[in-house]
Amino acid sequence: MTRPSALSAGPLRPLLGARMPTVATAVLLVATVAASAVLQDGFFTPYGLTSNFAAVLPVAIVTVGQVIVVLGGGIDLSIGTIVTLSSVVTVQLVAGQPDRLPLALGAGLLVGVGCGLVNGLAVAVVRLQPIVATFASSFVFAGLALLILPTPGGEVPSLVTLGYRQVIARAIPVPAVLLLLLWLAWRAVLAHRFGRHVYAVGGNEGAAYASAVPVTAVRLLSYVAGGTFAALAGFALLANSGSGDPFLGNSLTLTSIAALVIGGTRLSGGAGGAGGAIVGAVVLVLIQSLVFFARVPTTARELVTGAIIIVAIALAGLLTARGRGAGP
Amino acid sequence: MTPFLEMRGVHKRYGGVVAADGADFSAERGEVHALLGPNGSGKSTLLKVLTGVVAPDAARVAIDGRPLSVRGPRDALRAGVAAVYQELSLVDELSVLDNLVLGVEPARRLGFLDRGRARAAARPALDRFAEAFGGRPPAEAPVRDLAPGERQLVEICKALVREPSILVLDEATASLRSGQVEVLLSVVRELADRGVLVVFTSHRLAEVQRISQRATIMRGGRTVATVPIPQTDEGELVRLMVGELAAPKREDRRGGPAERQVRLKVSNLAADRVHDVSFSVRAGEVLGVGGLQGQGQSELLATLFGVLRRRNGTVRVDGADVHASSPAQAVAAGFAYVPGNRATEGLLLRRPLVENLALPSLGRRSRLRLPLSRARELASAREAAVRVNARYGSLDEPAGSLSGGNQQKAVVGKWLPGRPRIVLMDDPLKGIDVGAKAELFDLVRGLAADGAAVVLSSSDDRELTEVCDRVLVMFEGRVTGELSGPELTEDALLASALQVHGNGP
Ligand SMILES: Nc1ncnc2c1ncn2[C@@H]1O[C@H](COP(=O)(O)OP(=O)(O)OP(=O)(O)O)[C@@H](O)[C@H]1O
Ligand SMILES: [Mg+2]
């Protein structure tokens, strides 16, 4: 039995408040999947599923990274450029040779961790505004990526690209399995003290500090987690495309933010989660390919995609705002 | 012999405001030690230095004779200090249980949470307060769904889960009703018997006198005296706290407004947690709303102000039907409302004081389509601050930097415009010191004398007897009793609130 306080009260509260983002996200998922099934030939064939999951996975991974940062009360505007930087480092080091994979992947991961550390130090220790600090660092990371790989190129071992598009047991694409692993990783974060502390710091920093939560460390680590997930997303992008590109992941920054908002995560921190955000990533990727399959003229694609995303975000936002109970 | 806890030369300034000016404090194991002083005298600051939330400019702290360097709440926690802060420190989105163990989560290997042990750690505290919660405390509910009194109880449980050897209670009773206070006081007594030092801050002197053995009094950031409680009467405590100013006197003003016109008439009002409530208030009358914690008092006021949806019933103001479905409509009908939760509805804690105080009058100005003028904003903010005699450093500082009592004064000043016809106040006097209380009493009586009808809920029965002409007692959303004239005493209020409990389902 709970007694709602006077101004957030209402019998519909549990229905509208806590579950509404999930309801809105689910509605969007069903709508985009249905539209894709109609417009994309062979959407439900193993081939169709594989290529869709292959496109979704990198976006979903970055989004989970962004979710951790945002839940902790921050934001990472450099996350897409971290994807790019770690992917160009990886592709340059691997140089098409499978035996160099461990080295290249290790280095790529280190780059992600390092970039996250830089952001985390700037925000948590130097106490710069997250938007400003990560906006600035995004230019540094993007610039470094261009120095390392000035033009598209580099070769990913075919072992990786082929493996990425394998289908297990006739119907289960490898990227779908990886997506499941991603979700399990998120569950592990939730079951860990760190996850709890991230929610506390983003929800009420003062309360977290007074409760002896190590606020600075939590904040720092949230950016490190963001950078780490960005590096993993870079690997998925490489596996999907087969070669490197100095702009490979840059656009993922805004995509990740849009995806988490669609998934019901609050931009001011402390509320939401990666479950919804992963669905948000699926919705976004499907919208982008829908615009392609609906034969929208190339020049109008950006506009149409943008418009649909705005509608999706507005829908998620409207349904969420309703439940929040209006104050005076 | 060295005292168990010793703090010497605590200095802290915030910009131009000196919050602690060489304060000293010492107390013994197994003692309930009250820390008293007017609003803004530095009590919370001193306590936060002890708990590591505030870094002092200078201070020496020793526990058991051993010097302690407190660089943050973690150090204090390790030294056995746990606290209930005046501004509640819970995370809204986390569940009650998660809040109880926040920062001290029991974990398995590698830091993975152990829910079972968390539950086990929280259970004794929750069980101990079950009666005060009015049933099984909702361990899985998010804290945001709790009423202010319940949040306060969760906060107290959270401190107990840390098994402190020094427990700091900064105004922990401010939003509790008498039954809940009793539970807390008995827990405090048990802890003290087991050797825990309890430092207790409250503006309710009756509580202080019942529970504590000694009191240290602060004024202007310094400790002015430490006195043994049994030998010091209330008048003396007040004199030590506020200097020459006398305690609020109980003037007899009952039976004045009987012949004035009925200003507000409420019939069969129903809303969430409000059932079939009828009453009327005359111009010039102060009507109290009391009873146990969370019996629909806040909801009743919020419904009248159009914040909560009315399901049934009529509201008449000066004989005319009013159906306010939004605060704006209620204001147009002559209502003013002082909300009960200052952190969420009363103030924008991070915005400057000037914006806060001038905010409710912005509407009036923007209707004239004038750009906001800084000078006017300052003037109306200053006027609001003067009205309630709030103490502040500068109007440009964030509202959250005021002492708890001064924040409460700012809430009242902010929400009381010039001349309302009906004033609704939800527990407006919590955390306000004796001197300021007398001033706010005068303010409320003044509003009534100017012809307003005042409806005021309070968690403090004594306040109700002092300021109200008549008090309605609520239970489970219904009005179950009414007291006025010579019947209106603290004992009668408590009896009325509890008696219903006995007969209830
Ligand atoms: N964070 C802050 N920034 C600026 N000034 C502050 C801050 N915290 C406290 N102060 C100022 O320090 C002084 C002492 O405040 P403190 O909260 O210790 O008073 P208090 O004795 O606890 O009062 P109350 O009874 O109202 O709770 C006040 O004048 C207050 O405005
Ligand atoms: Mg205080």
Give the helix/strand layout.
The complex is a heterodimer of chains A (328) and B (505).
Chain A: H1 13-18, H2 20-39, H3 46-71, H4 79-94, H5 101-125, H6 130-148, H7 158-164, E1 167-168, E2 172-173, H8 174-190, H9 193-203, H10 205-210, H11 215-241, H12 252-262, H13 274-293, H14 298-323
Helix pairs in contact in A: 2-13, 2-14, 3-8, 3-9, 3-11, 3-12, 3-13, 4-5, 4-6, 4-11, 5-6, 5-11, 7-11, 9-11, 12-13, 13-14
Chain B: E1 5-14, E2 17-27, E3 32-36, H1 43-51, E4 58-63, E5 66-68, H2 73-78, E6 81-84, H3 96-100, H4 115-128, H5 130-133, H6 148-161, E7 166-170, H7 178-193, E8 197-201, H8 205-211, E9 214-219, E10 222-228, H9 234-242, E11 262-271, E12 274-282, E13 286-291, H10 297-304, E14 312-317, E15 320-321, H11 327-332, E16 335-338, H12 342-346, H13 353-367, H14 374-388, H15 404-415, E17 422-426, H16 434-449, E18 453-457, H17 461-467, E19 470-475, E20 478-484, H18 490-503
Helix pairs in contact in B: 4-6, 13-14, 13-15, 14-15
Bound molecules: adenosine-5'-triphosphate (ATP) and magnesium ion.
Magnesium ion (MG) binds next to helix 1 of chain B.
Describe what this molecule looks like in 3D:
The complex is a heterodimer of chains A (328) and B (505). Chain A has helices spanning 13-18, 20-39, 46-71, 79-94, 101-125, 130-148, 158-164, 174-190, 193-203, 205-210, 215-241, 252-262, 274-293, 298-323, and strands at residues 167-168, 172-173. With 328 residues, chain A is mainly alpha-helical. Chain A has one domain (4-322): ABC transporter involved in vitamin B12 uptake, BtuC (Orthogonal Bundle). Chain A has a two-stranded antiparallel ribbon. In chain A, β1 and β2 form a beta hairpin. In chain A, α3 (46-71) crosses α13, α4 (79-94) runs parallel beside α6 and α4 packs across α11 (215-241). Mean pLDDT of chain A is 86; it is low at 1-19 and 322-328. Chain B is α/β, with parallel strands linked by helices and 505 residues long. Chain B has three domains: 5-242, P-loop containing nucleotide triphosphate hydrolases (Rossmann fold, 3-Layer(aba) Sandwich), CATH 3.40.50; 247-334 and 421-505, Rossmann fold (3-Layer(aba) Sandwich); 349-419, no CATH class. In chain B, 36% of the residues lie in helices and 24% in strands. Chain B is built from 18 helices and 20 strands. In chain B, the strands form four sheets. In chain B, strands 6-7-8-3-9-10 form a six-stranded mixed sheet, with helices on both faces. Chain B is globular and about 70 Å long. Residues 245-255 and 500-505 of chain B have low confidence and may be disordered. The chains are: A mainly alpha (328), B alpha/beta (505). At the A-B interface, α9 and α10 of A face α2, α6 and α10 of B. Bound molecules: adenosine-5'-triphosphate and magnesium ion. Magnesium ion is lined by residues 43-44, 86, 170, 403-404 of chain B.
